[in-house]
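Module 6 notes. Inverse folding takes a fixed backbone as the condition and produces residue identities as the prediction. Think of it as a translation problem where the source language is geometry and the target language is the twenty amino acids. Below is one complete input and output pair. Work through it position by position during the lab.
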């Protein structure tokens, strides 16, 4: 997430705030995309949905995919092989 957000919006240094429709009145403030990713991992771990190792592996995989896509211009929804798109489920 942080790699894609940095590529699209640039690195964050100024504070930014997010709200949630499921937690009315609650506002979370961050100064980096990494803080947002870290808090997201904590939320999944603390709620018992994922293990920390699984979420950290997911962040690593997502970062690798984002970097590869940015370097090679792979459009969303397409595989790395030209002209090949995933089969519909």
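Target side of the pair, the amino acids:
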């Amino acid at each position: 997430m942080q790699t894609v957000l940095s590529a699209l919006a640039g690195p964050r240094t100024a504070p930014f705030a997010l709200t949630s429709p499921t937690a009315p009145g609650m506002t979370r403030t961050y100064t980096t995309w990494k803080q947002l990713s870290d808090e997201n991992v904590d939320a999944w771990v603390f709620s018992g949905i994922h293990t920390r190792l699984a979420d950290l592996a997911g962040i690593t995989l997502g970062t690798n995919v984002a970097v590869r896509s940015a370097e090679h211009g792979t459009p969303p929804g397409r595989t790395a092989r030209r002209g090949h798109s995933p089969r519909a489920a």
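Reference fact for the lab report: The helical segments are 2-9, 33-46, 52-72.
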